[in-house]
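Problem: given the chain below (393 residues), write out its structure.
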Amino acid sequence: MNICLVSQEYPPETAFGGIGTYTYHLAQGLAEAGHKVHVICEGVALRGEYQDGRVSVHRIFHTHLSASRILFNEFGLGLEYSWAVFQAIKKVVNDYDIEIVEGPNAFAECLIYSFFRRTPLVTRIHTPSSKHMQITQRKINLDLNLRFCLESVMIMQSNLVTSSSHANARMIMPEVGIPPEKTTIIPLGINLPKVNSAITVKRNGPFSVLFVGRLERRKGFHVLMKAIPTILREMPEVNFIIVGRDTSDGPDRQSFKKYVLQDFPEQYNENVQFPGYVSEEELSVYYKNCDLFIAPSLYESFGLIYVEAMAYGKPVIGCRVGGVPEVVKDGETGILVPPEDPAELARAITEILINYPLREKMSQAARTHVEENFSRQKMVENTLAAYRGLLGK
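Solution.
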């Protein structure tokens, strides 16, 4: 099958979040299964076409037409980029006999192609921009509402809509009027790292707690920082490693890290490290060496970061939001807490760290859970089944 995947994010140059990670794993998995895969993504320094293993990557550049964005900046940006994507898809479809095109709902990248498509179009719904803006408490104006409409229209124009979780589909589908028969649930999957058959769990401290994610409100970074002093008063040798790039999510678009740390007690600074954004190789080392993984996100359509941590046999802590309860088995592979609740978060972290039998049990269950449900091979098989069903129609 000849397949074209569209994603503004694609590693290594523009791998900013879950959409880029998902696209990478799906592209590589489909190629390993013998299919011809082309990825259309944004380029900054890298230009043109090149091979990423067996995957053909097409990085595109588009000119920002400032005249179109005098009044509606976000709306204009969305249309401009969608037009650049449309031109790139047309060329790839013509040159490589593409049979199916898939793109994310975010930023409505395939909007214009959806009106002039020559192949079936699959839209993968991730956390919608409207939900992201709501969580970050950003003021929503007419410009943003128009951009949100672009995403909804693209979803309605699609031949098939896929979602990584039932919760995310239930939230979005009624809003855009998509019937259940046009929706398929396909959980995300990763290439499983190699671990020892008998996962070793540290019995005594000092312990290392890992957070991975952008330093922004949606990822719950501020909630974790509020919980840390409570934990350290009881367990002063715990170390927290905060991996991820800073954002301008603070008031007046200031650094969110700086905004959150202004209220953090200085006596605990030595217990918290900020490596910033790290490479995949460095991240794997952090996963291997941590004793507990935590991501208290205020919303996740799925939560691929929990899968990544559990794949290394690590207990995880998340919140009962979005698709997270479909990924983390509460009480078995980790603990789920209410969002925006530093006290409950601190309690859960302390409970896992001081309870060695619980940590050992969760570590083994976490790896097994990922092997059985969230492997890259399983995601590829489910995706191909959905593609074939659509082409058969």
